[in-house]
Amino acid sequence: MTSSRGPASTRGLLRAGLVGLALAASLAACSPRVDNRGMRFDPAVVSEVRPGMSTRDDVLYILGTPSTVSSFQGPVWYYIGQRTEKVAFFDPEVTERQVVEVLFDETDRVSQVNLYGLEDGQEVELVERETPTEGQDITIVQQFLGNLGRFNTD
Questions:
Q1: Measuring CA to CA, how many Å separate 119 from each of 20, 37, 38, 85, 102?
Q2: Whole-angstrom distance, CA of residue 105 vs CA of residue 54
Q3: Signal sequence span per UniProt (predicted)?
């Protein structure tokens, strides 16, 4: 027996393939895009930094270069890492954050190591005030008219 597929069955296969492709594309559009920024820490590695024993050089060897250094409260190093997920066109959402805080004493030895997570963070309200500038507030038309006649034609 010979099987012959006519144009109707070919169209049915094509239609089913297009529906499957559209379904796969719509599911792929809904999967979140995951971004990892900074450092991810294994608690066993962080525990190698021992207060009273480890020096700055030891911390550099174990954890690497810090993400940031404190400007206000003596020698403190911060190692920061976070994971965000973004779905479609929505704003990214922070799903995980790790902060390792390493404090040093006067002899450059570790005095304290603190671990913080996303739940330890605090929302900070930003101030929306503007710093006033000196001078006059003039419009573009006033600027244009004020500059007429100031051009040298040497």
A1: 42, 18, 18, 17, 19
A2: 11
A3: 1-24
Domain contains 19:
no
Tokens of 67: 């993400």
Indicate whether 106 belongs to any domain. Answer: yes
Q: Is the residue at 22 inside a domain?
A: no
Q: For the chain, what is the domain count? A: 1
**CB 46, CB 113: distance < 8 Å:** yes
pTM value is 0.60
Residue-level length of the chain = 154
Q: For residue 91, what are the domain limits?
A: 29-121
Mean pLDDT (10-residue bins), the chain, 154 residues: 60 77 65 80 87 91 89 86 85 86 92 89 82 77 74 60
Rounded to an integer, what distance in angstroms lies between the CA atom of residue 96 and that of residue 82? 5
| Residue 11 token pair | 């169209």
SS3 of residue 32 by DSSP: coil
